[in-house]
Design brief:
Length: 379
């Protein structure tokens, strides 16, 4: 998040590539066997998108062309988060988000609103106001600023992000600033405000750690379902849930039945589902790149075969398109597992957990996603 674009840079870059966008997309999608994830997903009755940053789109032509080729939906990685929008109270910084929306509109792409309420993106000034004065108005003003400005461009809003935490409260709610200031009803309150401002949009609750058949994630699934059931019973206005899908090869086991049953319970509540942040954290960095890619692709294949068997799952977004710009890193803990494996200054390269490699070439994970769309279309 350290590098931020200037408005001039973004506008110049956006203008420079809009002219070629329609022809580029049409040309690629007409290539049959070489069809993009965008066209494969659309043919299956779903959608494919990715999280992006406008500063990277503005300066990296290869990356920009890959986005135009492969995606129909874009999720702002950080441009829409409260601490990025309003670091100074009452002085919203909207230029980066304006440029991203302009880029999406000019190229016929759709936007996801990520995210309105997240405990890790509260501006410093707001923390004191919320806690000391129990004042909801800064949240309502922030919602109003974003939805009134971008509501016609955004069809899905992650209204509340990551509200669940295990091992603390019986209701499973995370001990965050919103809970401390306003109590458990803060989620319903956020949904009510979002619905008032965006009456036709799909409102979502987005959560992570719901994927594996391990104790902590079993607890999280149970608590998340209880939250959804309670909100639905209370008439809270929301339409869908986001399941982030941050896969991790160190976790396991993955149970198709357990995950499939969980998705069915969500669908039984009348809610749609989107896989919102798919990527894969590797574990064995000593293996050859080909083997690493095979393991990543196999995990994605097993996961998406279960997800796409559920008709309520309407789309897939990966948290990044290329390993060039992945938030997942080879950590000091990863290096520590292999003492002496690499010389000083050397290493295993980047984490290989996104559809394209660092050179924007399609990897086995890409093929696994495309094949999953094709195997289980909607309708």
């Amino acid at each position: 998040m350290s590098h931020r674009p200037t408005r001039r840079t973004c506008l110049l870059a956006t203008a420079g590539l809009v002219l070629a966008a329609t022809g580029w997309r049409a040309g690629v999608e007409a290539q049959g066997a070489d069809a993009s994830l965008a066209s494969v997903a659309t043919a299956a009755g779903r959608y494919y998108g990715t999280a992006v940053r406008i500063d990277r789109i503005a300066v990296d032509d290869q990356y920009r062309q890959a986005i135009l080729r492969e995606c129909t939906h874009l999720t702002p990685e950080f441009e829409m988060k409260w601490d990025a929008i309003e670091r100074i109270r009452g002085k919203p910084s909207l230029a980066p988000m304006d440029d991203l929306v302009s880029f999406a509109r000019a190229n016929g792409m759709r936007m996801r609103g990520h995210t309105l309420l997240w405990y890790r993106s509260v501006p410093d000034w707001a923390a004191g106001v919320l806690l000391e004065h129990k004042d909801w108005s800064p949240i309502r003003n922030y919602f109003s600023t974003l939805i009134s400005r971008y509501g016609d461009a955004i069809e899905q809003w992650d209204v509340v992000n990551e509200p669940i935490d295990t091992g603390h409260r019986t209701d499973g709610l995370r001990e965050n600033i919103f809970l401390r200031a306003f109590g458990p009803d803060y989620i319903r309150r956020a949904l009510d405000d979002a619905r008032m401002l965006a009456p036709r949009a799909s409102l979502m609750i987005n959560e992570y750690g719901l994927d594996y058949d391990i104790p902590v994630e079993r607890d999280r699934r149970y608590l998340f379902l209880k939250l959804l059931e309670g909100l639905k019973s209370a008439g809270a206005p929301f339409d869908a849930v986001g399941i982030q899908g941050h896969l991790d090869l160190s976790k396991g086991p993955f149970s198709p039945k357990v995950f499939g049953d969980f998705l069915q319970e969500i669908a039984n509540l009348g809610l749609q589902i989107v896989i919102t942040e798919l990527d894969v954290k590797e574990y064995d960095y000593l293996a050859p790149a080909e083997e690493r890619d095979r393991r990543v692709a196999d995990a994605v294949r097993r996961y998406l075969d279960v997800a796409f068997a559920q008709p309520a799952v309407k789309g897939l977004t990966s948290w990044g398109l290329s390993d060039r710009y992945s938030w997942l890193e080879v950590t000091p803990e990863d290096y520590a597992r292999y003492p002496g494996a690499w010389k000083a200054g050397d290493g295993p390269g980047v984490n290989r957990g996104l559809p394209l490699d660092s050179s924007m070439r399609r990897k086995p994970m890409y093929q696994a996603i495309a094949a999953a769309f094709k195997r289980q279309p909607l309708g």
